[in-house]
Specification:
heterodimer; A: 248 residues; mainly alpha; 12 helices; globular; B: 309 residues; alpha/beta; Rossmann fold; Alpha-Beta Plaits; 6-stranded mixed beta sheet; 4-stranded antiparallel beta sheet; 11 helices; 14 strands; elongated
């Protein structure tokens, strides 16, 4: 377990010396900041003419995850593929580190970085709260942030798993992006046209489990299981890919 | 310390190493010699637990590299052929990271110590990306030494170093080899001759010879060959005169005015030859035994293999 932490810490530190991580942070904070201003402006305009509901923070958390669909592949793409390309994987695989510890460490490093980004977005509900009387529904916000933790954990695990398959970081990036795009937008599209099995496709969809569920304050076991299974799947794929690399 | 039996590795249909058997003891430096593609790196990768063999068994520091891989890996230091390093990291941080992964106690002190051993103490806070190839090679070596491994496996350890550094690194390996087991691969034969107690010559995945460097020379050298130079050009007369001596054979007049001949080893005919030359009226300038270098032994062994086929 100590190895997981050692690897995670290096990856986490590494993001701060990588320009790409700053670009990702900017690409998340800039749209969220703009969106926040629009929400505040629109609700204050409505309030001016009387009759307005209080603004909510959940569009912010929704946007965070929506942006993560496109941006998290950039955070995970090089985690293992680059080690394979540069040959540094050879030293890791000959160190007394289990294959799973390597994958889990890489995942945890990326996860900590994304959680840091998510923590920064807490500033928006806090500001918003100053303009709302009596106050924002914090239970809703807690649920939404729990959603962020679960979804980003799953996305990053899948990203790490795919990165372990490839020796080229761009291949890893596009495959990961394609998978997320499919899981978010496409998998549930044919659901309503199918006579049977539509529920299965709906169940597989990332957005059903987030936008219409946990982000609206409903935490149900099915969603939690869904995200934890995706996380486990990603880590399993990564570990298996490393093992296959050894046998090749 | 290293015991390999029946080790075989296939890459698809290609057999990279075929039924290797050898061992290496504590306090011994074993050289692994062979042309490119002979299977040196493959063998080393199996010994370090990077990949499992197709067949056979390897025991390193008392642990099976497949079944007790983690225990074996704890006791092995490995310098791969193309020293892979994180170029964006600071030297000391990198070594601390590798040390932590191997559970080195007091890792910071140990990093300083090892950097001193490889002569990089003043570069501890520099980025690896800014180091020269020779320095990176030494960072790689430092990384292999961090956890005081019982077995050290070095794939071409002096490649890319300048001559001064080569001497230093060889000195360091010799020092380490006094207490630990070192297996190093090289295609520089004089390096093997220089630092190894024993040499394994490998060709096309098979060990073709295994012995100390001295014994290898003696074994292949049924005869001793000597070269002679005289003032002016040597001629047929001289060759004939030498041929007359009993025991001399295979006399050859070289184009550059030298004469070469052979006699059975153990029976030194040089004094007789010298007397004969002077008696024949020539001024003897040089009389030198042509020791067979490891290069020639190597070529001999590898070409014999080819001939058999």
């Amino acid at each position: 377990m100590k190895n997981i932490w050692t690897i995670a810490k290096r990856e986490y530190d590494n993001y701060f010396s990588s320009p790409l991580a700053y670009v990702v942070a900017l690409a998340i904070f800039l749209p969220i900041g703009i969106y926040f201003c629009i929400i505040m402006f629109a609700t204050s305009q409505q309030a001016l003419y009387g009759g307005s509901s209080a603004p909510e923070a959940t569009p912010i958390t929704w946007l965070f995850i929506f942006l993560l669909i496109f941006l998290s592949p950039a955070l995970t793409m090089r985690l293992l593929s680059d080690e394979a390309r540069m040959g540094t994987l050879e030293l890791l695989l000959t160190s007394p580190v289990r294959d799973f510890e390597l994958i889990a460490g890489k995942w945890l490093g990326a996860f900590m970085f994304v959680l840091l980004l998510a923590a920064f977005t807490l500033i928006f509900p806090v500001i918003m709260n100053n303009y709302v009387s009596p106050s924002l529904d914090w239970k809703l916000i807690i649920a939404a942030y729990l959603g962020i933790i679960l979804v980003s954990g799953a996305l990053l695990a899948l990203g790490v798993g795919i990165s372990a398959i490839f020796s080229n970081q761009f291949a890893a990036f596009f495959v990961t992006l394609g998978l997320f795009f499919f899981l978010w937008f496409m998998v549930s599209l044919p659901a309503s046209y199918l006579p049977t099995g539509g529920e299965v496709l709906n169940y597989l969809s990332l957005s059903t489990h987030f936008s219409q569920s946990i982000n609206n304050g409903t935490i149900n076991l099915g969603d939690v299981v869904y995200y934890l299974s995706l996380t486990a799947l990603g880590l399993f794929v990564g570990t298996t890919a490393i093992e296959i690399r050894r046998w090749r | 310390m290293i015991k390999v039996s029946g080790l075989t590795k296939d890459y698809g249909a290609r057999r990279a190493i075929n039924n290797l058997n050898f061992d290496a003891h504590q306090g011994e430096i074993v050289g692994f010699l062979g042309p490119n593609g002979a299977g040196k790196t493959t063998t080393m990768r199996i010994l370090t637990g990077y990949m499992p063999p197709t067949d056979g068994e390897a025991i390193v520091a008392g642990y099976n590299v497949v079944e007790e891989s983690l225990e074996a890996r704890k006791r092995v230091g490995y310098l791969p052929e193309t020293v892979p390093l994180y170029t964006e990291m600071v030297v000391a941080d990198y070594l601390k990271y590798m040390g932590d992964l191997r559970g080195v106690p007091n890792v910071e002190d140990r990093v300083d110590e090892v950097l001193g051993m490889v002569g990089l103490g003043d570069r501890a806070n520099g980025y690896i990306g800014n180091l020269s190839k020779g320095m990176r090679q030494r960072v790689g070596l430092a990384q292999a030494l961090l956890h005081k491994p019982e077995v050290l496996i070095l794939d071409e350890p002096t490649i890319g170093l300048d001559p001064g550094q080569v001497v230093e690194v060889r000195e360091l390996i010799r020092e380490i080899g006094k207490e630990r087991t070192v297996l190093l691969s090289t295609h520089l034969l004089n390096e093997a001759q220089n630092i190894c107690d024993r040499v394994l010559i490998i060709n096309k995945g098979k060990i073709v010879a295994e012995d100390t460097t001295e014994n290898l020379q003696a074994r292949l050298l049924g005869a001793e060959r000597v070269i002679i130079r005289v003032r002016g050009e040597a001629d047929e007369e001289l060759a004939k005169a030498i041929k007359l001596i009993k025991g001399v054979r295979d006399v050859e007049l070289k184009n550059d005015g030298a004469v070469e001949f052979e006699f059975a080893s153990g029976k030194d005919l040089r004094p007789e030859v010298a007397k004969q030359i002077i008696k024949s009226g020539y001024d003897l300038l040089e009389l030198r035994p042509l020791g067979m270098s490891l290069e020639e032994i190597f070529l001999e062994l590898t070409s014999n293999e080819a001939k058999k086929k």
